[in-house]
Amino acid sequence: MAPASSLKHQTYLTLNDGNRIPQFGMGVYLVPDGEPTETAVAEALRLGYRHIDTAHAYQNERSVGRAVKASGIDRSDIWITTKLWPSEYGEGATAAAIDKMLERLDTDYIDLLLLHQQFGDYKGAWKDMERAVAAGKVRSIGISNFESANLEDLMAAATIKPSVNQVECHPYYPQDELRERMAPYGTLIESWYPLGHGDAGLLDEPLFAELGTKYGKTPAQVILRWHIQKGNIIFPKSTNPEHIAANMDIFDFALTEAEMERVAALANGRRFYNVSLADQEKNLGAWAPAD
């Protein structure tokens, strides 16, 4: 449980490379490029968000970069995470892709760069990512959606161990087994679908209504608070100003250890993205994001 003195403030986690990452941020997956992304990011930054999660595949990096520039906030105070697509994997190809990414974001460095998927020449890409860290173009590097044996394959080849692994994670699927596999490397969980893709069954769990009543919070806020205390890095997506504000209003209360255990008991193995590895690889290989 977080100490009372820190409950009203953004929390930070120290990665295995020593960098401190804001534990809470905003994601822009499926937010259209242009005004929708710029407006949402601007509002989030105005409210105190300091971590924005994007990706080349989201096709809105330029809008994120413009919003960050326009905010007037010192660049060093904003953490930008973005991701490489498998079509950009491989020595040489990844180095070129990183330079293009820096141009799209209009920034001198990327705080956290991830391999978006576990297919293709991810080991060649990782070598270029390590070189980008040495060159100062990237601060931290990590992975996303590595849950198969490819995780250990990359770990064995990596000089710099992945700082995070961004995966589906929520109370129904808390990723405890994956967390244990990554513990020897100090790799942290980042959660996409932190609210179970907005699943009504998860949000309507009686436990979250009960805890929400106790703390004066919504079920969604209780779930997000659970993530924070679990040690996950989260970035719920919204373009609604009220929801953007509500999502961050989770630092003035804390669940007890007993309440955390009650949430843990909800784990049932249910995932909301159920596509086989073979189908994922087939589908992803047929598409590449535009520059």
Automatic annotation (TrEMBL):
<keyword id="KW-0560">Oxidoreductase</keyword>
<feature type="active site" description="Proton donor">
    <location>
        <position position="58"/>
    </location>
</feature>
<feature type="site" description="Lowers pKa of active site Tyr">
    <location>
        <position position="83"/>
    </location>
</feature>
<dbReference type="InterPro" id="IPR023210">
    <property type="entry name" value="NADP_OxRdtase_dom"/>
</dbReference>
<dbReference type="InterPro" id="IPR018170">
    <property type="entry name" value="Aldo/ket_reductase_CS"/>
</dbReference>
<dbReference type="GO" id="GO:0016616">
    <property type="term" value="F:oxidoreductase activity, acting on the CH-OH group of donors, NAD or NADP as acceptor"/>
</dbReference>
<dbReference type="Pfam" id="PF00248">
    <property type="entry name" value="Aldo_ket_red"/>
</dbReference>
<dbReference type="InterPro" id="IPR020471">
    <property type="entry name" value="AKR"/>
</dbReference>
<protein>
    <submittedName>
        <fullName>Aldo/keto reductase</fullName>
    </submittedName>
</protein>
<feature type="domain" description="NADP-dependent oxidoreductase">
    <location>
        <begin position="39"/>
        <end position="266"/>
    </location>
</feature>
<feature type="binding site">
    <location>
        <position position="116"/>
    </location>
    <ligand>
        <name>substrate</name>
    </ligand>
</feature>
<keyword id="KW-0521">NADP</keyword>
<comment type="similarity">
    <text>Belongs to the aldo/keto reductase family.</text>
</comment>
<dbReference type="InterPro" id="IPR036812">
    <property type="entry name" value="NAD(P)_OxRdtase_dom_sf"/>
</dbReference>
